[in-house]
Structure formats: C-alpha cells, structure tokens
Specification:
- Two copies of one chain form a homodimer.
- With 429 residues, chain A is of the alpha/beta class.
- Helix content of chain A is 39%, strand content 23%.
- In chain A, strands 1, 2, 3, 4, 5, 14, 15, 16 and 17 form a nine-stranded mixed beta sheet that branches.
- In chain A, helix 2 packs across helix 14, helix 7 packs parallel to helix 8 and helix 11 crosses helix 13.
- Chain A starts with a strand and ends with a helix.
- At the A-B interface, helix 2, helix 9, helix 11, helix 13 and helix 14 of A face helix 2, helix 9, helix 11, helix 13 and helix 14 of B.
Chain lengths: 429, 429
C-alpha cells in the first residue's frame, strides 16, 4: 500500500505533512517527502488524513464483552457473586469465541490492534483473534483461590499446551504470555510453579494483577509481610519481562522493584474509577522511571474498548491523583498507548510509524470539528478525539476496518451470535 | 417526519421497541405502537435504530473552541495569564462567530442541541446559534475584578440590550440568561445591580460560577464570612431559577440553599479533573434533593463537547468522590444530561421523547459492537457509547446533522474560517 499526501504523527508526536508512507506485506518500508520508486497495489490519497501508530491494549479480559452492562449499581461483592461469577460458570467455547470476536470488532474500530488478554478458553480466544487479523498476547490465567494442590491444577496443563502450540504463531500476531491471576487468588506453591516454568521457557511475558485495591494490597502485607510487588518479585515471577496490571496502591519501594525488574505497569484508569478502586498517581510512576502502558480492563468494568477515552481518563485521573494539572502530558499518554504498550507485549518492531516497523496503523479524518483548530495535534488527539475520527485500522499491513466496514469480521453475524450466546447463558441462571 | 419501526428510550430510560414517532414542525405529535393516520413528509425507517432525547449542555463558554489544546501543561495561573487572557484580548466578532459555529457543529454531531453559554460578543454568538438551527441560553458574563464603579460597566448595557432584543427569539430557541461571572471576579455592588435587574425582568435564568476551586471557596469565606452560595443567595441573585456551575466544594448548607432556591447545579466533571480542581460528590447532591445537570465547560479546559464522554466521566468521578461504585446510576446520568438540563434552561417542554414536547432528538445506530449485548440499554448508553453512534440530530424538528453531514452548517468553511481567525490572533501575540 502507498499513502500519499498524508500527515504523519512521528515518533516525537508532532506532525510531518505531505508525506508518502509505503507498506509491503506486514511492514512499513518507506516514509518520506518524495514519492518512492516502487510499484504498489493500493494507493490511498491521504489529503485531510492523519496516519499514526495503532494502539496496544496492555490489560484486558477479552471475552467479557458478553457481560457488558450486566449488573451495574451493585457493590463489588454482589456484582461478582450474583452476576459475573454465575455468568462465567456457564461460559462455553462458542460464547467465548463470539465474545472475543465482538471485542476484536470494537477494538478495531477504536484503533486497538493488539490486546494483552488474561482469561480461559484460550484456544477459542486464539481462534477469534487469528481470524480477525488482529494481534493478542493471550494468557491462561492461573488461580487456586481454595489452595488446591498445584499438581492437580488442570489450568497449568492448559497453559503449557497453549504456550507450546500457539506462541508466536500467525507470523507473531499471537503470543502466549504466562499469567498468575494475582497474589490474593493463589498460594506461594502455585506462584513458584509458574516461576519455574517461565525460568524454563524464558521467551515469554508474565501478566499479573497487582495492588488493584487497597484491601488487596493490605491483606497481602498481613499474609506475607510484603506488598504484592515485593512478594511476586520474591517468588521469581518477575524474572521475565512482566506486565503488572493496575498498581493503584504500589508504593515507592514497589516502583523501585518494577524499575529494577523491567516491569511495565498497565494503567486501567476507567475500570479503577468505575469500581471505585482508586486513581493511580502516574506522576510518581514517572518519577521512578517505571514504564507505563494503558489497559481497558474488561468491558464488564469499563464498559468499552476505546483508547481515546482511556487516554483522556488516564490524563484526567492522573491530574487529580497528583493534585496537579500538569502531572502528565498528552504526548506521554500517546506514548503509553502506542510505543510502551507494544514494547510491553514484546512487540519491539511496533508502536511507531517508522521504517522497518510492523504496519500497525490508524488513519484519522482530520476534517472533523473536534480536531480544529490545531494549536497542537498531540493535545487534540489525546483530549479531543472519541474514536469516531478513525477511518482505517491496519494490522500487520492488512486493512481490518475501513469507513465503518469490517474487512475480516462479519459484524452482523458476530452481534447475532453474541446476543444468542448471552441469552442462552441467562436462561440457565 | 415519521419514524417507523424504531426503538425509543422512554422517560423511564427503558426501551419501547417497534414504535412510531411523528413530528409536526418543532413538536412531537405522536408516539405509539400503531401507525398514525396522518400525512407526513419524510418517513424514516428506524430498524436497528434508537431514538432518544437530545442533550442539554448546562454550562459552557462556546467560542472558546478557538483555544482548543492551546497551552496545555501549564499551571492554571500560567495557562490563564500567558495563553487564555492574551488570546481573548484579541478576539473580535468574526472570530467569536466562527468559534461558536465550530462549537455548534461539534455539539450537533455529539447530540447536544442546546447550550447554556456564558461569554461576551453575545450578538455574534446569537447569530451563529440562530443560523446553526440549534438552541442556546446566552448570557453576557458580568465581572469587575478591579472593582470599577458598576455604573461605568459597559457590559451591563450590553446585557440589557441583549435581553431586550434576543430573549425568546427564534421561536424560543434563543434565550437570554443573566450572568454574574462569579463571586471572586465581582464586588457586592455589581452582584446587587444584577439582582435588581433580574427582580425587574423576572423571566430569566441566573448563570454563575460557584465554588469551582477550594481556593475560591475559602477566599470567599475570608472576604464575606460566607460561602459563595450563601453570599450569592444573600445578594438576591438566586431569586430567579439559577444554574450554579461546578459547586465542587459546595457544603451541606450550600446544598440546602440550592434546594430551597431551586438552583440547579451544572456538574463539569471533565473540566474539574483536567484543571485538578476536584471531583464533585454527586451522591451528596442527590441526598439533599438538589437538581443536577451536566456541562462541558469550555473546550479550552475539556477539550471536547461530547456528552457521552461527559456522562461517563461524571459517573466515574462520582464513584471515586463517594468511594462507592454504586454512588450514581446510568439512568441518573441520562436524566441529568437530558431532562434536568432542559429544565435548567427553562425548556420545560423538552428533554424527553414525549408527545407535545419539542422534537429535540437523536437517532443512534444500534448495529455497532459497543452497543451489544444489550443487558440494559441505559448502561450501554451511559458507559459504552462515544458519540459515533449518532446518525441523526434533530432540533425543534429540523435535521441538523445526518450520517456525517451537516444540514445547516457549512463545515468546510467553518473549519477554514476558524483556522484563519486563530492564526490571525496568534500573529498578534
């Protein structure tokens, strides 16, 4: 593909105008002011359009779109015990496949091309991701809240099967991460079994919930005499690159551990506010030099997959948490949503419009009122967009979404099957 | 117009399916399960669509779209003194007219049909609103921060001229409110002069900033021995229905004053977070039985005019401010954005899809991933929409926006003129 006369959001988050950008297969092969001397298939006139990196969702539970808006206005405990857990008890392959496909559709239209997922029925998730043309770091979440012997956990076998059969498949679009659900849903024996496994395979990423709520953080200190971050580091789970989701209550010492171990924090600003868990002081994370990416968490606690919204709420909540309107900048939000998210997923050749990188791109219509005037494009992107500006989403060089149409997903069938699978589960409750 | 086979969000915020809705001129004349026996101009097939009330923006400064994203990452003081005030010094009729038209375009696409505006150059604002086909409660904001003699304030004459010549024009689309900017930007003499004027004309609404920041709230107590709300009530400014914008730091006693005086609070959740002013405890406002609507505040401190986003951030920030995930419901957010906003503007025949009401309507495409599954439509609307679902915005029975096209606004010219007016001002700075 060749884009001509297009504005490009570059690695400094400023705009280069009237550019040519060429892709070949999955890769960006040319960016420049002059027309490249090559033959291309499709030529796209980029007048009035902006090309930028797509987004990388660093923490989500993809199939939970099925529970969108299910049981609001309940306490966290009632919500989990009377709605989410009973619903999840009746999930099957078909429901998970279609729930994932719905997430892929919503992600694509909002410019998210890759998701760090933590759930179960992972082969069904992988199948939907593969067919959608998007990317995911899929992890089979391991928990044994009732303290079952780790040797009897079927989930561990599922995890190994998944890693052995799916890691780095589809030209690397699908990666398998290893996930302990959290400190509070497991015991030390389980954590150490996972640490042993990652030590063996090495080439993976650890994905885990850390200090999402004050209660969780404080209970861990009571149980182990250590914060969740310190405990998890102690078990060896941070001996591979890791994504620590939430970290609302991470202490200065915890942040030093993350810095030393190369852990990336996945901020989940909307979910943390919606569940009244708290607001993360991102300025403090910055001060400690810890990498931070952005996650949506699941649709059940968000209730959307929209990175423009997520960036804005991240900026807003950081300003409040730090009691400082200049706690964090639009450029830092954009970097978290693109480059840092890609790196956290082990996608080092992605997250910026750069020659040699994967062609994970979104094209925005700039002829819309919310993008004018242009005092500073980064500010307009992070604060004024809603996602409706996206006219094209490209993943590994393949057009996934264009002008309201899905190229790889049958959206009508997906919505039909999601409604049918949801109703089938509700009838059993 | 006749809508057929359409889903309607009713006054209880639940959905009636397969309905007929008919409008005649500016008014909804029929809602029912049976086809009405009347002749209609345009017939709209509503299959897969939802019809609901449009939104009423209870606090904004419309022309400030011109300063979108101008001077982020500055302290509030630096932002105002080095960017906003110098820019505003160079505003003229042309810039204000086009800035307002841009606001109208952005509002229309996001389903906002009416805005409670507080600014100056009000005749230019009125001209743009009139031509756009939308509605506004326009107020000429009165301030005398340097304590000038109230008799010398030209703004008071402008205010009276505006009221006498524009109030309830355009079939009531344009209303003129009276506005004291705030306690901290005026003296008692000025407040009382306005109170005298509203006592004379009676048929208006008072629009005023109240307790936006902790500093403002506390300084007022030092100056007057009273909170801003108590002081303003004491001056007589609440002797007509009023919109009190922000009220982040309103006390229980203040809320009792609002309740007694019939004051509606205009929440501005995005702006309050962006400027790190604070988060309003909406659950406490509810407890006192005070009406609350929603405002965007100006684009300069938001930076968009998007009521789906504003509802969601209102819900999120209320949950955090109350440390309670069930502090406020989706239905309450929808009511604040529609019915309560309309009433606060003195538009008692608006804000709900109801026979006899003004036809201020938005039609949403329900065949999008973010609106499925439908466990509860109110939850999906308040938490999962971004504004991109809106395929039609109707104000007083006139189609303003449809499928990405503006029927009353020349969007290309508006963007061109906004960019030109902005650059002209920047050259002078």
């Amino acid at each position: 593909m060749l884009f001509k006369n297009i504005s490009v959001l570059n690695e400094n988050f400023t705009v280069d105008e009237n550019m040519y950008v060429a892709t070949d297969g999955a890769v960006i092969i040319y960016i420049g002011k002059e027309a490249p001397q090559l033959d291309y298939g499709r030529v796209i006139d980029g007048s009035g359009k902006l090309l930028m990196s797509a987004f990388y969702n660093a923490h989500t539970h993809t199939p939970m779109t099925l529970m969108r808006g299910y049981g609001e206005n309940l306490s966290l405990e009632d919500w989990l015990n009377t709605r989410i857990f009973p619903f999840e008890d009746h999930l099957d392959s078909n429901a998970v496949y279609w729930g994932t496909m719905l997430s892929m559709a919503e992600s694509a239209k909002n410019g998210i091309v890759s998701s760090s997922d933590m759930y179960y029925f992972c082969e069904d998730i992988a199948r939907a991701v593969e067919e959608s043309g998007l990317k995911a770091n899929i992890s089979r979440s391991i928990a044994n809240p009732f303290g079952a012997d780790v040797k009897t956990l079927a989930s561990l076998d599922e995890m190994k099967h998944l890693y052995e059969n799916y890691h780095n498949t589809c030209d690397g679009r699908i990666k398998i991460d290893i996930s302990l659900h959290a400190e509070y849903t497991s015991n030390r024996e389980t954590a150490e079994a996972l640490a042993e496994y990652i030590n063996l395979i090495k080439n993976t990423i650890m994905h885990i919930h850390v200090s999402e709520t004050k209660f969780e953080h404080e209970e861990c200190i009571k149980r182990h005499g250590m914060t969740p971050a310190a405990y998890l580091a102690d078990t060896g789970l941070f001996n591979v690159p890791a994504i620590a989701a939430h970290c609302v209550y991470a202490t200065d010492d915890d942040l030093e551990i993350f810095k030393e171990k190369g852990v990336t924090i996945a901020l989940n600003p909307v979910s943390n506010m919606k569940l009244a868990s708290g607001m993360t002081n991102v300025a403090n994370i910055k001060k400690h030099g810890v990498a931070f990416a952005i996650g949506t968490d699941s649709v059940a606690s968000n209730n959307s997959l929209n990175f423009f919204e997520e960036m804005k709420v991240m900026l807003l909540s950081s300003k409040i948490a730090n009691n400082n309107p200049i706690a964090i900048s639009a450029e830092e939000a954009l970097e978290a949503a693109t480059l840092t998210g890609a790196k956290a997923q082990g996608r080092n050749d992605a997250g910026a419009v750069k020659t040699g990188n994967r062609a994970d791109l979104i094209m925005l219509d700039m002829t819309v009122p919310q993008l004018h005037p242009v005092h500073n494009m980064a500010n307009n992107l992070a604060y004024s967009c809603s996602g409706s500006e996206i006219v094209m989403t490209i993943c590994d060089g393949q057009v996934i979404y264009e002008n309201g149409e899905y190229k790889t997903i049958d959206i009508e069938k997906t919505i039909f099957e999601v409604e049918a699978a949801t109703k089938k589960i509700l009838r059993k409750l």
